[in-house]
Task: structure prediction
Amino acid sequence: MITYQEAIQKLLNEADRTLESQLLDWKDAQRRIVAKDCYAQIDSPPFSNAAMDGYAVQAKKLANASKAKPVILTVGQAVFAGDTKENESNADAIPIMTGAKVPKGYDSVVRIEDTKQREDSQVAFFTKVKPGENKRDKGTDFKRDSLILKKGEEVTPFNTLSAIAAGIRQVEVWKKIRIGLVATGDEIESVTNSKPLTDGQIYDSNMPALQAYLEAQGCEVVHVGKIKDLPSLLETKIRYFTQQEIDIIITIGAVSKGAKDFIPSVFEAQGATCLFHRVAIRPGKPIYAGLMRKDKPILCLGFPGNPISSLVAARFFLYPYIRHIQGLAQEKPFIAKSVNSFQRKNNRLRYFLKAKYVATQGGNIEVKILDGQESYKSYPLVQANCWVMVQEDKQSIQEGELVTCYLMS
Result:
């Protein structure tokens, strides 16, 4: 049995790989990870334009304007947003709408509320302006060739807005990680089955929960299946997965030391090299990881069947691996003050505890370690929004102590 830190290092180093990338339109690239830096193709704004409805003027002509002594200027032909023909008027003021190109020779815009139209094609101006006032100059948001999106950033609706404004038509992202997911167990039954549970059966909560988690991380779950506790059935699944360009195979259950815990031996019989089996953590100690080298490397993960153990395995093994192969920095925990105490058994395991944090009115973060830490108890997840991590050499947590926390997902 190895430590958690040793297991993570093996996973990230020995199972390291490079994903393939693809060009996508922005609508199809949301929540994907950028595989290549994106640079602006144009200036933004691409031309100097009016920040509001008003009049384009030369600021110097209104140097003495005031409410008591307005300056009267002659008005030329109006300019609207989208006009493509250059306005060549030599009038003192040009009516201009928000977003319209400011004609050459005019350096500022007076808002319409500070003027009054006269009957003789003239306008009274009641305020002076500074050069550049109410005018959005070309390139003041960003210049052409500015870095808009870095490799390793997530595509969101917000940076999509900037990228499209920069004239970037498509984005190169990493292809989705393809995962084959299979649960083992004679006792598990789908909740969608209309038949009531028989004695000795339980609903399969692991499979739908893990599928939802994986898809929320941007993965493509290629095949979801359930098999009985027969090694030959898993062998068939593995052969199927290797034909589907799968990146990761995840099994749930049959990974410990029981009579029907056959996952490690089947993986290795199919060509996997064991990276580790059993890690000094709670929950999730029986976790298995192996590497199968076919046309491309396939990571093989055996998650324990207890519900919380499988979630911990996904959160603290699979999630760091997904970030790593997409070129993302590893996440940093946050620190919170524990509002209660916790005493663990006398062992040297790393604990991941279900917990709930809140932000206080004073701006501090407090966390409560929830009751029901056993790996079969899922009810605390109704409240939980984070995990408290307890290091191997830490035997207890005292009320008021600062602790290390990770978000739930």
